[in-house]
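[audit] Reproducing an earlier prediction to check determinism. Same input, same settings, fresh worker. If the tokens differ from the archived copy the diff job will pick it up downstream; this log only records the rerun itself.
[audit] input (182 residues):
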Amino acid sequence: RKCFVKPHDLWQNGWAVLRAHWYLRTAKQVGRKVRIWGRPSIQNQGTLLVGDRVRFISTIATSEFVTGAEGILDIGAGAFINYGCSIAATQLVRIGARCNIGTYVIMMDNDFHHVEPERRNEMPESAPIILEENVWLGARVIVLRGVTIGADSVVGAGSVVTRNIPPRSVAAGMPAKVIRQL
């Protein structure tokens, strides 16, 4: 059985690899065969680590990746991040290997302001966000600071994750709650 690769596919993948090298030029580490489709917004003032075969989509809507001066954004091998996502790391956001991030997901390890009116100009403490291996976040999921989502878990579309999710769980809702184990 022969495998035929269309010249157009080689062209698209070749550009995606070159685009990754350009957009991730400020990263401390970029793995092999990292690909970017579209034009993401990457503001790296801290440490950006990208594993092998990570795929970024930023075609329909711009994906945003921000690291503060002390921030670490660590994206594991084989991860997939779809369009329209906003990921900000002032301390640590770690996306494990083989994670799938749906469209318009927001992950920020800091709230950037207090709720009290007299303290709204103060920046609160950051707390790390950890996605262990093979986590799947549906479309428009929001992950708040200080959350760890266990390996092999799924978070349903539109959920707001405010607390840790154990491994091999399906969670959904606002706030997200475990609805069953896998």
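[audit] rerun output stored. Observation attached for the diff report: The mean pLDDT is 93.
[audit] end
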